[in-house]
């Protein structure tokens, strides 16, 4: 497999350890293992087995992709640290893919939205909170704003004026319905699943491959946290 067309992407941002190998835009192999903890011990042995099963060597890879969240704090750190380490050792890009972007890409791939449509992606966080981000749909979704958190309560809103403003200058209507976020008639709302379904795993790999091919957004991946940790060290309180 030519290295510039083969990518390995993985995710441990929730109660799973998952990875997918993509070559030429097509899934070659993958695995998903449910687990509440132990991703740090599981990840590299499973990645080694995945590559060996397809006779792919580490140096054959053109990039590594990684799910950057939102999700479990520890899980996100495990995967992002692994991706950065591999990128440094192999001298290849590490490409971060958020669950928001993955959701927008799935909606386009399955025909829920068309190219150029506006999407509000919504992710359930803890304690009734929601995370949202607005995209323009396409094979590589274009973010129209930054990810944000919306807390429950009558005073909460997507922005001070109740709208999500994208850099395009267009106001995208977003209104509250209880603790959920709903889009206006001209904007699709897509609810995300932070788990790792076959569709989500395929999207993670496909986005990594497309980003590499396009030479777009190849900056070092950073964890995406939209809530404070449940526990902090005593010195940080």
Furnish the topology, listing elements before pairings:
Blueprint lengths: L5 E6 L4 E8 L2 E9 L4 H15 L9 E5 L5 H18 L3 E4 L1 H11 L8 E7 L5 E7 L5 E2 L4 E3 L12 E3 L5 E7 L2 E4 L4 E4 L6 H17 L23
Parallel strand pairs: 1-4, 4-5, 6-13
Antiparallel strand pairs: 1-2, 2-3, 6-7, 7-8, 7-9, 10-11, 11-12
Helix pairs in contact: 3-4
**Which overall shape is indicated by the principal axes computed on the Cα atoms?**
globular
C-alpha-based Rg, rounded? 18 Å
Count all strands and give the number: 13
User: How confident is the prediction overall: mean pLDDT?
Assistant: 83
* Sheet with most strands: strand arrangement: 3-2-1-4-5
Proportion of helical residues = 25-40%
How far is the first residue's CA from the last residue's CA? 51 Å
Provide the succession of SSEs: EEEHEHEHEEEEEEEEH
Regions with pLDDT < 50 over 5+ consecutive residues?
Answer: 155-173, 175-181, 232-237
Number of helices: 4
Quickly give the structural class: alpha+beta
Measured by DSSP, the beta-strand proportion falls in: 25-35%
Oligomer status: single chain
The biggest beta sheet is recorded as: 5 strands, mixed
